[in-house]
């Protein structure tokens, strides 16, 4: 048995996305079919379309999603039909050496659905990040479904599935920002702003936002930045030091993914401070630093993959804090759009006009 739904696919490298009929098999052992209610548009979806991730076209795009479990396969006990869930791309295996050492957020063998969704002619689809949620329904591994409070809006909840979690997690999980810390965030798009909101949630005393676009700096203030620096006109390293008694920030979060901004982060942190790289570089980028500075300045240089999140721990917690008004996840939803508007949303994202466009069903 299977069912047919509408979904957005990227048919080939740099070809426009289009809506197609998708065939969804019934869930097999360990799998679930989820009725999607909302799915955010992320840079990674655009990278898939551009062929920047791999060549396994056609892709079923979309991966920042929330919805309701429709059916589950054999042996699924953690979720049941009717559960409101946020989809994640870190369904931990419980068996690999990271999981066995009690560090499941580094799981090296995360689960996706085993069966394939297809086009009507049988062509197998590659779901973006093992999710594929620009579709009325999708098939995932049951562990990719994280139950959260159903009172929250799906458009808001779904954002935890990727970029917003990456940013918040870069601050609270990877950077371990603590009460009273000084934090600088370089790059204030959706990810950087989420890092700012996360730093505020963690009790940072000073939060310095750095960007080359004044519009972004304005938004960063509403997310919790206490100071802003336009690095087009001002040297960000000097500015961050000046704002921290000449020392540099305790934690600097790089949310652009470029060597020059990484260098700024490296030199804008206090001695023994922490640099967190959450921006995603491209394969050809190279970093050059005096090794004596890497040694002499001490501290830690970390990267943050999906905000080092553990979905089962972090999603329900952040939704609860949102519901209590302690972090405003709704502020990341710039606009809601229809399934047919994804191509336009890519253009708006590229132009820096939105934090997140969210497809609602
Ligand atoms: N210095 C400071 N800020 C910069 C610079 C720079 N040299 N170049 C770009 N920016 C700013 C942009 O003005 C924008 O506000 O970085 C921000 C990037 O934001 P978005 O394009 O909205 O990207 P976002 O979704 O936040 O993701 C940021 O994290 O997950 C990764 O792939 C993602 O690498 C990307 C990064
Ligand atoms: Zn594992
Ligand atoms: Zn994403």
Descriptive notes:
The protein has 361 residues and is an alpha/beta fold. The chain has helices spanning 43-49, 97-100, 154-158, 163-174, 190-201, 214-223, 236-242, 259-267, 291-296, 311-323, 342-350; strands at residues 2-10, 18-25, 31-40, 59-60, 64-72, 84-87, 118-119, 126-127, 137-141, 145-147, 182-186, 206-211, 227-230, 249-254, 269-277, 300-303, 335-337, 357-360. Strands 3, 5, 6, 9, 10, 17 and 18 form a 7-stranded mixed sheet that branches. Strands 13-12-11-14-15-16 form a 6-stranded parallel sheet, with helices on both faces. It has a 5-stranded mixed sheet with strand order 7-2-1-4-8, with no helix packed on it. Helix 4 crosses helix 5 (190-201). The longest helix is centred in the last third of the chain and has 13 residues, at 311-323. The radius of gyration is 20 Å and the shape is globular. The chain starts with a strand and ends with a strand. The mean pLDDT is 97. Bound molecules: adenosine-5-diphosphoribose (APR) and zinc ion (ZN) (2 copies). The site of one zinc ion has 6 residues, from loops. Residues 43, 163, 166, 186-192, 210-213, 216, 231, 255-257, 261, 278-280, 352 line the site of adenosine-5-diphosphoribose.
Portion in beta strands: 25-35%
Report the radius of gyration as a whole number of Å: 20 Å
What ligands can be seen in this structure?
adenosine-5-diphosphoribose, zinc ion
Whole-number mean pLDDT: 97
- Assign an overall shape: globular
Q: Portion of residues in helices?
A: 25-40%
Largest sheet: 7 strands, mixed
Sheet/helix structural class: alpha/beta
Order of helices and strands: EEEHEEEHEEEEHHEHEHEHEHEHEHEHE
Number of helices: 11
Distance from first to last alpha carbon = 24 Å
The total strand number stands at 18
Low-confidence stretches: none
